[in-house]
Amino acid sequence: MNAYSPPDDPEVVDIAIIGAGFAGLCMAIKLKEAGIDDFFVAERAASLGGTWRDNHYPGCACDVQSHVYSFSFAPNPNWTRQFAPQAEIREYLENCARDFALAPFLRFNMGLEQAVFDDTTQRWNLRFDNGHQTSARLLISAMGGLSRPAIPQIPGMESFTGKHFHSQHWDHRYALQGKRVAVIGSGASAIQFVPKIAPRVAQLTLFQRTAPWIMPKPDRALSRLERWAFKHLPFTQRLVRSALYWALESRVIAFARRPQLMKLVQRVAWRHLRRQVADPLLRQKLTPDYTIGCKRILIANDYYPALSRGNVEVITDAIQRIDGDALITADGRRHPVDCIIFGTGFQATDPIPRGLLLGRQGQDLMDSWSQGAHAYLGTCLPGFPNLFMIIGPNTGLGHNSMILMIEAQVDYILKALARMRQDKIASLEVKPEVESQYNQRLQRRLAGAIWSTGGCRSWYLDPRSGQNTTLWPGSTWRFKKTLEHFQLKDYQSTPLPHPGPLATLTTARPLNLHEAALDEKL
Ligand SMILES: Cc1cc2nc3c(=O)[nH]c(=O)nc-3n(C[C@H](O)[C@H](O)[C@H](O)COP(=O)(O)OP(=O)(O)OC[C@H]3O[C@@H](n4cnc5c(N)ncnc54)[C@H](O)[C@@H]3O)c2cc1C
Ligand SMILES: NC(=O)c1ccc[n+]([C@@H]2O[C@H](COP(=O)([O-])OP(=O)(O)OC[C@H]3O[C@@H](n4cnc5c(N)ncnc54)[C@H](OP(=O)(O)O)[C@@H]3O)[C@@H](O)[C@H]2O)c1
User: Fold this and answer.
1) pTM score of the predicted model
2) CB of 136 closer than 8 Å to CB of 123
């Protein structure tokens, strides 16, 4: 893709999408399909892919079958496995950008530094880290819920003499062969890379704070015949997708409605542990102390065998500090290592940094979210007119593919846009009472779900309020249905001014021209 060179004058655009992962690309494809072309997708990195560009650690793959973990409108008959590896998913997204001719809309190395809503013009003024400035009517945040890594503040970290990196920023130039490696964390990322690096390193010390529940992974290579059928008889892939979708979807009953059913699932995971780990002491360390489902259920066939290797040790004592070349645990033991790999996850409850999005009267989004993130339909927020978030608060899933949520939100935004056109609306802002009632209902439903009742601490829960601000407490089809109709009554709307008053705005010359053109279009 071409690098984008910013023009000299501030630019005026109808829609600015921020982020070129699954969400930003989906929005761009659907805008194009709707005949809208006055938009761009700004991406801070040099290429597209989001999660699947940034996470390239050994073993990285999706944990929802690829037939479902892909756009419904862009099936890929070429997946090589049930759970495609990272490189294939990234390639899939590159192919989508090519097939849907997105190149002219994509702008790389263009990170949003600040977006400020201007009450006078009812538009967003955007400043990017390449010096570019834009006035956009709509701002669509597709910045990802899991794109800011979390690295714990461990006392003495500055004294560490070895190499360290986070799983999201894997340093492939650093040779792990023969090294003593500490892995901190035992979540979805760590369970994928630990089995890949354990045979290469001299010693792997896994610092596990909480043992995860792990189920067998029903992975396998897809045969040439299957791929032939998916390509030449597309209905076969649609059937497989549908069957997988419903199999995954049925799990929501236990997660959200009948947490007691989780005990049955737990038995399968427990058998998996017993079958794969013979050493009773290790098995004890690896036995979780909460009900399965409370944290994300992990799937792996090679993790327990990796931990059973002679050169791997699982430490459950808390890390107290780092001193020179060693991690010191609460029992006073010194663990000298050459390298620390942080498999410590993401800032999921604080996905957007302070100072990035300023709404009406300069209100920082982070002040609105001081007690935890919230939004209406995970998409809109009072005080932030014309801001639409994709994968905003409470849109995450523990049981199915995030792409289903992304597509539902993109459809909703398109409907909002259509309504804005039809009714000549300059800006839309969700009513505070609508948003607040929606969230009260949501939190009531979440209170009885396994994520709150399962006896664990997880990144699903906001550390300030203890509320679950990340997950959707129901089925994906319920989410789709909830977002099926755009209800104007839920929003305060400001009508578009007539061309006369617009001409008196003090903004740059291109804005007036553009607004007049837009007014005509509407
Ligand atoms: C390792 C890993 C594996 C996962 N596996 C699965 C799975 O199997 N199934 C599943 O359903 N979900 C999975 N997820 C969740 C995954 O994040 C979503 O499925 C999906 O990829 C999110 O897409 P997105 O476009 O919303 O966000 P992202 O893919 O995170 O993309 C956000 C983009 O926004 C850009 N950006 C951020 N801030 C700025 C800024 N200020 N200016 C410009 N650009 C910016 C980022 O650089 C990035 O490219 C996984 C997550 C991780 C981390
Ligand atoms: N497709 C996939 O298979 C896949 C792969 C990777 C990621 N993902 C997605 O990304 C999410 C995040 O996964 P992740 O593994 O990167 O992060 P994660 O699930 O949040 O796991 C982080 C791990 O680090 C530990 N940890 C955090 N801070 C620590 C500290 N100060 N000291 C010791 N341990 C600490 C956590 O322990 P505690 O459990 O005690 O908090 C946990 O084991 C997943 O839930 C999933 O949604 C999916």
Assistant:
1) 0.93
2) yes
